[in-house]
Amino acid sequence: VAWPIVQSFRYSLYDWRIGAKVQEWVGLGNYAALVEDRLFWNALRVTLVFSAVSVVAQMVLGYAAAAALQRDSWLTKAVRSVFFFPTVVALATIGLVWRFLLDPNIGLLGGVVEWLGGEPVAWLQDPDLALPTVIAVSVWKNLGFTMIILLAGLKGVPAHLYEAAALDGAQGWQVTRHVTLPSIRPTLLLAAVMLTVSSLQVFDLVYVMTKGGPLNTTDTLVTMLVREGFEYFDIGYASAVAWALFVIILLASALQMRFFRYNDVD
């Protein structure tokens, strides 16, 4: 684990190209080139938008689903299974299925719209719709995972806290705000960090559905990294992108840990 990490940082300090006889030392040249690279800033923007929207949506919808399905019955267990099923399917498979479903010419969704008398929408070919569509598929895919984690947190809230809140006259949102959410703060932290790290590294879904297009509107840092390293064979530049992503993930995780920090007094 450690050696490839060290090597990737070493590569980022060279103009390291596969097949070259001499790997030229450039120091921080690759990082300086990133600052001036329009495609890098575009990929960074797309990655941050994807992560922010998908994580917030999954946290909100996941909590709503967990709260609604908290009681144990055969019906709630069945619905939980339905929600969780997409989570166990590979991202590449999910992306492939949705790419065909959303195809305006041969896709099921386009066929239904056409049968109803409408015009099929090019969800993945329209620069304005491609990123929101990929985000929606990502949320749909991971919603069950978030629901299960938050459901475990909700079931761990001591009953006496709710009893005390009822005696104090708390109702509805007051109970959620002052009892439930503070009690599941460690669970919220776990879910938020895992979802954020995963979304910042998104690759499979984007690559299968759009390959970063159209017009780079879904090009993330990891798709850029793969393109630079394994299509252009510029390993030094790709390693610099990887370390930039590492720093972003580190900062995002630190901010979340500070935001969701808790102690026994809480």
What can be said about this structure in brief?
This protein is mainly alpha-helical and 266 residues long.
List keywords for this structure.
mainly alpha, 13 helices, 2% strand, 266 residues, 2 strands, single chain
Q: How would you describe what is shown here?
A:
With 266 residues, this protein is an all-alpha fold. It has 13 helices and 2 strands, in the order αββαααααααααααα. It has helices spanning 2-11, 29-36, 38-68, 74-84, 91-101, 108-115, 130-155, 159-167, 173-183, 185-200, 204-209, 221-231, 235-259; strands at residues 14-15, 24-25. It has a two-stranded antiparallel ribbon. Strand 1 (14-15) and strand 2 (24-25) form a beta hairpin. Helix 2 (29-36) packs across helix 13 (235-259), helix 3 (38-68) packs antiparallel against helix 10 (185-200) and helix 4 (74-84) runs antiparallel to helix 7 (130-155). The mean pLDDT is 89.
Relative strand content: under 5%
The tally of strands reads: 2
The parts where pLDDT drops under 50 for at least 5 residues are none
Secondary structure tally, helices: 13
Radius of gyration: 22 Å
Along the chain, the helix and strand elements come as HEEHHHHHHHHHHHH
Ends distance: 37 Å
Largest sheet: 2 strands, antiparallel
Helix content: 55-70%
Oligomeric state: single chain
Overall SS class: mainly alpha
Task: Give the overall form.
Answer: globular
Average pLDDT confidence is 89
Order of adjacent strands in the largest pleated sheet: 1-2
Topology:
Blueprint lengths: L1 H10 L2 E2 L8 E2 L3 H8 L1 H31 L5 H11 L6 H11 L6 H8 L14 H26 L3 H9 L5 H11 L1 H16 L3 H6 L11 H11 L3 H25 L7
Antiparallel strand pairs: 1-2
Helix pairs in contact: 1-13, 2-13, 3-7, 3-10, 4-7, 7-10, 10-13, 12-13
